[in-house]
Amino acid sequence: MKLVNVFRFGHHGAMRVLVVEDNLALGTIVERGLREDGYAIDLVSTLADATHQVDTCDYDMMLLDLGLPDGDGTQLCEEVRRRGSAMPIIILTARDDLGDKVRGLDAGADDYVTKPFDLPELTARMRALLRRPVDYRNTEIEVGDIVLDPSTHNVTRAGIGIPLTSREFALAEYLMRHAGEVLSRTDLLEHVWDANYDGLSNVVDVHIANLRRKLDQPGAAPVISTVRGVGYRFETLDDLSVTP
Ligand code: CA
After folding, report:
1. 75: CB partners within 8 A, 6+ apart
2. What percentage of residues in the chain have a pLDDT greater than 70?
3. Residue of 36, 235, 8, 46 lying closest to 143 (CA atoms)
4. How far apart are the first and last CA of the chain?
5. Distance of CA 193 to the CA centre of its chain
């Protein structure tokens, strides 16, 4: 018996997922693919139906298109969070719509998948979210003396507020959620920018440099390490706090 299979199927065998997508061709592909993968799926195509489903059923996760015929998916996302639900939400966003992505994350979504996507990518993202503690999203992220609050978008170091742009905040949040792990530029581009971002090739490096400039403090070890040829790592900072 392979442990990995026990984990995989045992974990999401009873998972119920609401898919909100008005492109029925895409919605149907997702619905069928996820069913084959063992998820229980409800597919709806309007904001009204999605709201009704969320009101009446207890979902383990929601996949949410933002551009819906009767409204904007971010409204539902905000409403779900306002009610205190930590249900993981993945935004399904159009390839070039960075605005969608930012609005979705601002509204409380946990992750996004850029259309067109393939099912393995989607299910990998889903498994990653389902593995996390259910209430992780409502809590502040603390790494050493740096505290990031996803609900207020405040970042402090040793209690002092650090102003970040929205992109820097998204980058800091992603890095801090994965503190201690090496993340490639591709990882960062996919999660903080568009997977197919075709702007400046050094956009990640530029934002990392800006974050370092804002987060690093004299007398303390650097917060973000460069792992040559691989990417970046946000240090766990266990013993890197600034000492007065
Ligand atoms: Ca749509």
Report:
1. 47, 107
2. 83
3. 235
4. 54
5. 12
**Structure token digits, residue 162:** 């650090």
> How many whole angstroms from 45 Cα to the centroid of ligand 1?
8
Sheet containing 154-157: give its strands across.
141-143, 146-149, 154-157, 160-161
**Which three-class secondary structure state does DSSP give residue 179?**
coil
129 pLDDT more than 60:
yes
**pLDDT confidence bin for 195, thresholds 50/70/90:** very low
Estimate to the nearest angstrom the gap between the alpha carbon of 135 and the chain centroid.
14
- CA 57 to CA 80: how far, in whole Å? 13
Q: Can you tell me the distance from the alpha carbon of 60 to that of 34, in angstroms, rounded to the nearest whole number?
A: 14
What's the gap in Å between 148 CA and the centre of ligand 1? 32
pLDDT at 139 over 60: yes
- Report all structural domains of the chain as residue ranges with CATH numbers, in order of start: 4-135 (3.40.50.2300), 139-239 (1.10.10.10)
Ion ligand 1 residues within 5 Å by Cβ: 22, 65, 67
- Whole-number Å distance, alpha carbon 16 to ligand 1 midpoint, is 22
Residues found in the chain = 244
